[in-house]
Amino acid sequence: MSIRNLSQEVERCPPQAFTTAIQLKHLTCRRKILKMLEELEANFSLVCFILCAGHFSHCFSLLAQIMLYSFKENAFMYLADSAINLIYIVIPLILMFWIPEQIPLEMENLNKIIRCKYEIRTSFGIVSEKSTVEKLLLEEKIFVVSGCNLIFFRRRNILSVLGTALTYGLLLIGLEVRK
């Protein structure tokens, strides 16, 4: 929300009024937001990793349960129970990757808006007197939430995680069926 509010504030500012003082104010706000995000990640990185690993391994066990009980006589009850539990595990696993992706998307939007402001200012012939502030504002600082820098919570990783759980789950089931 803070990033979105900052983006809206920058967008509302006319290009002529986007002076060095305003730019420094926005740079300070962005730095505070980044610092807050880094502190949050430092505090919750391990918890996120453990939570994701737990959901991931639970997917394995439920997949194994579905495969093993599908050969039993009263398989329908076991399969229905496992399928419902799998839904309860997969949805939070997907949301773990979906929701944190909003941070990089908002940051990319902010960078796009700032770049657009500079382009409009330049097209009007307004060249800033302090290029370091401009460089810092245009610097791409995209923050991605991670779990111990091993799992990066991006939407594009959802299918990879689910595919990995399915592949290794089936491999483990294949080993069990052979025995």
TrEMBL record:
The name this protein carries in UniProt is Gustatory receptor
Q: What is the lineage of its organism?
A: Eukaryota, Metazoa, Ecdysozoa, Arthropoda, Chelicerata
| Ribonucleoprotein found in the keyword field | no
Q: Which GO terms describe its cellular component?
A: membrane
Q: Which InterPro entries match?
A: Gustatory_rcpt (IPR009318)
What GO molecular function annotation could you give as one example from this UniProt entry?
taste receptor activity
According to the record, the segments passing through the membrane are 44-64, 76-99, 158-177
This chain's source organism reads Araneus ventricosus (Orbweaver spider)
> Which keywords describe this protein according to UniProt?
Membrane, Transmembrane, Transmembrane helix
- Kindly name one Pfam family recorded for this protein: Trehalose_recp
